Amino acid sequence: MLVAVIGLGTFGEHTAVNLYNKGADVIAIDLDPKQIDKIKDRVTQSLIMDVTNERALRSANISDVDIAIVAIGDSIEQSVMAVAMLRKLGVGRVLARATSAIHEHVLREVGASEIMKVEEEMGNIIASKIIAPHVLQRYNFAAGYSLVEMKLDKRFEGKTLVESKIRQNYNLNIVALQKRIPYITEDGKSAYRIEINDSPMPMDIIKSDDIVVLVGNDKNMDKFFSDFEGN
User: Fold this and answer.
1) Pairing, β 45-48 against β 67-70
2) Rounded to whole angstroms, how far apart are CA atoms 72 and 166?
3) Residue 38's pLDDT is what?
4) DSSP state, 133?
5) Nearest to 202 by CA among 228, 166, 154
6) Fold for domain 121-230?
């Protein structure tokens, strides 16, 4: 997969490097030579370029990329022009970062395929951690839907997934169980290994130190958290 990441602030830089580390070919683009110098050894290719310059983009064969990510957050005008130019040059899938509702609206109007509301999503994650400290991780994978890793308490210990009534009462699906399995090391010490049950069955039993992975609608998830904290 060939991905162009445009705008190498904190978000853009981390996105480009993580994509590269996961096996993607990454073209990192920014106007600031310092940003390019900072990232050049951690991506496939790095370019100092004005992405609103059609000739420059054509010379970089930008139309060959599978996905372009416009990560510019400090200039609405530049991000909008970048999306418009990428669409004009035939890039089929353009993901763009929006910093406000107006920004999002304009990005959609000029052809952004998907919108990333980074600040809003991070705010939701932080708020969830404060309100629901038992939640270890929360990922927003689609509008209005989350995947959550959390520890249940003693109310659920020894119950099967069916008996927990999480699906029946909250319409949330438990898609995995992470278990700590005790064992004795070669030198006779007690230790634990982590095992993931990624196909849990209705009669699987929840243990006190299990981590469950839930998927579902955000409203249902928040209702479950509220009831969980309230009892």
Assistant:
1) unpaired
2) 40
3) 93
4) T
5) 166
6) Alpha-Beta Plaits (3.30.70)
Kindly state the DSSP code that residue 206 receives in the 8-state scheme: P
Residues in the chain, total: 231
Given a cut of 90, whether residue 30 has pLDDT beyond it is yes
Q: Which residue has the higher pLDDT, 229 or 32?
A: 32
Whether residue 130 has pLDDT greater than 60: no
DSSP-assigned states of every residue in 147-185: EEEEE--TTTTT-BHHHHTHHHHH--EEEEEEEEEEEE-
Rounded Cα–Cα distance for residues 229 and 231 (Å):
6
The DSSP bridge partners found for residue 26 are 3
**What is 2-116's CATH topology?**
Rossmann fold (3.40.50)
Kindly report, as residue ranges, where domains of CATH 3.30.70.1450 are found in the chain: 121-230
SS3 (DSSP) at 214: strand
What's the pLDDT tens digit per position in 48-71?
Answer: 999 888 999 898 899 999 999 999
d(CA 128, CA 125): 5
214 contacts 173 by C-beta, under 8 angstroms: yes
φ, ψ (nearest 5 deg) of residue 204: -65, 140
What are the residue ranges of CATH 3.40.50.720 in the chain? Answer: 2-116
Average pLDDT, the chain: 87
